[in-house]
Write the structure tokens for this entry.
Amino acid sequence: MIDLHTHSIFSDGELIPAELAQRAFAAGYRVLAITDHVDHSNIDFIIPRIVKVCSKITEDRKIKVLPGVEITHVAPSQIADIAGEARKLGAKIIIVHGQTIVEPVPAGTNLAALKSSIDILAHPGILTEEEARLAADRGIYLEITTRRGHSFSNGHVAQIAKKFKANLILNNDAHSPADFVSVDRANSIARGAGLTNDEISAMFENSRRMVQKFLL
């Protein structure tokens, strides 16, 4: 199992990074990305610490941990700049907190994110056809999430992604140990979003493909 969207106490998660990684490992995960929330106020504080601790955890444990960020509630006009800064500071996985239907994310966030140098658009809510087409063209992954609330729009995201051949990725958006779902639970959530077994397998392969380019 792979989870490329998790949070530690560096944002709104419950655990320090080492415990987060250990809990994930105990739940059957072998690769993790720690992607704490950032904006201009904390990006230069968060990323160097996440980079350091991910390296230390990966040195001594069977679980591989990648440093990342989730750019969150940033004005759409500023997303490209902060994504570039995150990459320079050492973030491997760059996520943008998409326009989930359960939070007041600024209008235009999805589109601005998909025009920027990012890897994953998280819980994108009521994704438009233009946005799905752009994700497909730019090779940006659209997230199917196991997280309560954000998962309400999984079915729509899956349907429109299939229409425009955009790549999907499944993440937990884990904030606590209870958020690391089993492979059976992940499969059930994906099937509930309308994905076939072949499409689910392809989605999990997308996670492996993303990880390989950073761990080789």
